[in-house]
Amino acid sequence: MQKDFFYITLWLIGAVKWCNVVLSGEIMFLGENHHNLDAKGRMIVPAKFREELGQLFIITKGLDKCICIYPLETWKNVEDKLKAIAYTDKNNRMFHRFLIGSACECEPDSQGRFLIPQTLRTYANISKEVVSVGLTDRIEVWSKEDWEDYNQGISIDGELEEKLSVLGI
Predict the structure, then answer these.
(1) Of 21, 103, 108, 158, which is the most exposed, with the fewest CB atoms less than 10 Å away?
(2) Count of domains in the chain?
(3) Which sign, positive or negative, has the C-alpha torsion 52, 50, 72, 68?
């Protein structure tokens, strides 16, 4: 009985937190999903991401050789931040070209699939197997091999622990 109460309490706490996110209008992508691209280079949007992503979204190059997917509203915030940095700085211009120059609008079909342009697939080393990772306000898409390699190199060391503790995590 106490065990059931404990699990119900945990579930309710999670539900309340999720409701607060939904009611605040914040977009929330979480978790890891494994997919295969079809022969045309299309990826299916995970069902749990479709509603938050909407019928029109932006895909572009991401850091660490992945592709980023942004809901339109989030992308507009990214654009606003990029407009605020000085375009006269060479590094800022390079980042504008990197992020905005490779961006394209996508609209999923009735089955939730969208085409990843060949240039982005080449950039991210994506051919068949992919992993999509929800990161609160965006989704990253990785080649399965690169995602596994990336995760092999992750360790929680002193520097990362310190950064997390500053955030109270």
Answers:
(1) 158
(2) 1
(3) positive
Total Cβ atoms within 10 A of residue 53: 23
Nearest partner of 100 among 111, 92, 109, judged by Cα: 92
pLDDT tens profile 128-154: 999 999 999 999 999 999 999 998 877
The range of the structural domain enclosing residue 53 comes to: 25-153
Alpha-carbon gap, residue 160 to 74, rounded angstroms? 27
Residue 158 resides in a domain: no
Instruction: With residue 24 as reference, give the H or E element that holds it.
Output: helix 2-24
| Cα–Cα distance for residue pair 53/120, rounded to 1 Å | 19
Q: For the chain, list the strands marked E by DSSP.
A: 29-36, 42-44, 57-61, 67-71, 104-106, 113-115, 129-136, 139-143
